[in-house]
């Protein structure tokens, strides 16, 4: 029995096209839109702020877990570029790099290399890392392992392009608690701080070849990550070492200024922020401070503008808006605060005992805080007091990595898994 082809019937054909289109169209907002890049530590501008990702007006009562994938241990934060998530982690005695499909959690590719590591007893509960967050630039992914192994990978295929094991260059290839600084690519130059306690090198490297452009010998690296800032009308690299905060000429590696800065147990861990050409930073049991550079001829001298001894920062880096500075102080077993960046005056403080550490993320007018015990707190960044919009339990273990926005989802890296939580309902 022969049946006439249905496409001869025009009305049926149109309906068939509609059905096919609906069936093949993505069902989630994440699949329907281009996912914004989050290519490095603390996002596109290294500030913890997104100007393009808009959070929901109304947050759901619970966050639905869209997918989870076991990636390995470590505090390295996920990054996003060209529609892929990249996660750096440890599996056994290997450091691994994974490329992950953001829509499903499927692993597109993974690479690894052997890297045994013995953690210092004082930080053994933090695990063997890695702690450094990768950077993606121009089709390349750069990773820096916990013992100083610097690697470049093809972001699309995972092919290793080059690798440097800095153990051969320094008596110690990582700080006491492991390498934590996150690489930066600026003006086509890869900026890394290599070495270990008491001896290191801040370097600009050609990312395509791994060859040095300039090197600046320093004391050992800190755990904080460098930024680029314009201070005293000079665009420069600002970086912590073990015992100092430095200003470095981006083109030559020449020292522009140096501010001695030490903390207990030698652990400078806070990435500075810049407000109106003022550097704002803190350190373990040290006051929150602001410094401005004064120019005398060709010489730059850091001068303190204000200091607030009630707001020491330990490992949590602050976030700066136009008129507010948000941070997480170690005092009272962990408190959130908002302060005036011009004076350091406190605007509000949260309840105490929020946790050992917290990672901050600003999306539009909403501040997201992820504590190290897996609590996600959503706040109105313009509120005059601490009044959470929502609080969620995320992850199934400690959460030291930073949360990362991914379309309508939020990526959370806990002790061993990367999880995607939906903050908007599916279409």
Radius of gyration: 23 Å
Distance between the termini: 43 Å
Largest sheet: 5 strands, mixed
Total beta strand runs: 33
Global mean pLDDT: 91
Strand order of the largest sheet: 1-27-28-29-30
CATH superfamily: YVTN repeat-like/Quinoprotein amine dehydrogenase
Helices, by number, come to: 2
Q: Assign the CATH architecture.
A: 7 Propeller
- Output the CATH class name: Mainly Beta
Task: Briefly note the CATH topology name.
Answer: Methylamine Dehydrogenase, Chain H
Give unreliable regions as ranges: 1-32
Helix content: under 10%
- Count of separate structural domains: 1
- The helix-and-strand class reads mainly beta
Q: What percent strand? A: 35-45%
Coarse morphology:
globular
List the topology elements.
Layout: H1 10-24, H2 29-32, E1 49-50, E2 64-70, E3 79-81, E4 84-91, E5 94-100, E6 107-114, E7 135-137, E8 140-144, E9 149-154, E10 160-165, E11 184-186, E12 189-196, E13 199-205, E14 212-218, E15 227-231, E16 234-240, E17 244-249, E18 255-260, E19 273-275, E20 278-281, E21 288-296, E22 299-308, E23 319-320, E24 325-329, E25 335-339, E26 346-349, E27 358-363, E28 366-371, E29 375-380, E30 390-393, E31 404-406, E32 409-413, E33 417-422
GO molecular function, one term: protein serine/threonine kinase activity
Keywords: Kinase, Serine/threonine-protein kinase, Transferase
Protein name: Pyrrolo-quinoline quinone repeat domain-containing protein
